């Protein structure tokens, strides 16, 4: 029987170390930048202020990432639940600070390596392929405060050492890897992926583009190491993709939408997938006053070590309105823009556009011709459990169903799609707000925004629905 999804399609789910593990100071782990981010809806505004300097202020703020959902101690229980759903893969990240607490040590922390050995082996024992992100918004704090983040070329060497250690340790049993999570996110919140705050030039285009160059070099080095360790490794890049529309047919808005697609959606992937800076880069740099410092061997390294696939997150779109035609601005989309009158939005204001995912898949495949992997997608919502802590989350099922239909349509269009790992397959601490109440998972975790609660896991309605989706290979999407 023919199916809409290839037989080798990787159905699974995704998390990040800093949002689930907790145990922020156990077994030799050092502080990461996320360990200094306060919880609450004002999180991104606080870290974008001129006064923020990574200092911990427990008198004023809570730090929910310190505890997370205790996945560090409960990973076997959680992975068993993923296996019960039928996961073919599990995307997670390695906390850099568990391996090199400050990022600068000469010798890795064996306790950290042993922990991820156990996580990987547990996945494999359940027939689940690990999909590992090397750096997911949690670089060592020391590298941000002492070295100034990724604008400093010294971080290339530190990341190369970290990557070599991890790839040599796990590269013979883990096939799928990615280098930097949502590398292009620095356009909007450079603290997360580049470790830059206002005091270290987060608002300066020169610093951000130089930091990106260093990350491109570091990503190429990690890709080179991976192929030396095990030629079967598949190394990917990972970007945010926000399908971009012009507000109307005014050519000014059409041009602006095209340029935003280039500068945000394509710039980082162009370098990592094509191995060179794109043709539009010089004009972009010139418009921003950017002059890159590029060392002699950098461009050759980029050209010779391109990624094997494009991983991306898809949550929202952007609608561009340069002419300021009548329209309502929306900050809820996190990436800004004008509200799209044809779309509904989530409780956090993120506009919902399944068709935009089909467009994204076609645009990326048309541009790069490389396999694609939707490694984040999901609906953050306030779940209201009953007295037995059961959540009937039909709204989440409907969201995911529509996006899976869009992926099936893109495959029918001719796109090569490797897999799908919905974000927050188990409830976790939100990146943007540091809250537990913004839930994505198939599994309810009994913790509130203060992280009070039992921490026990409870299957939502979407758990059994996704179990059926995987069992039928994406054919049965009914509620």
UniProtKB/TrEMBL annotation:
The active site is at residue 376. This is Family 1 glycosylhydrolase. It comes from Symbiopectobacterium purcellii. It comes from the Bacteria. Belongs to the glycosyl hydrolase 1 family. Coiled coil: none annotated. The keyword Transferase does not apply. Keywords: Glycosidase, Hydrolase. NCBIfam families: PRK09593.1. PANTHER family: 6-PHOSPHO-BETA-GLUCOSIDASE ASCB-RELATED, GLYCOSYL HYDROLASE. PROSITE patterns: GLYCOSYL_HYDROL_F1_1, GLYCOSYL_HYDROL_F1_2.
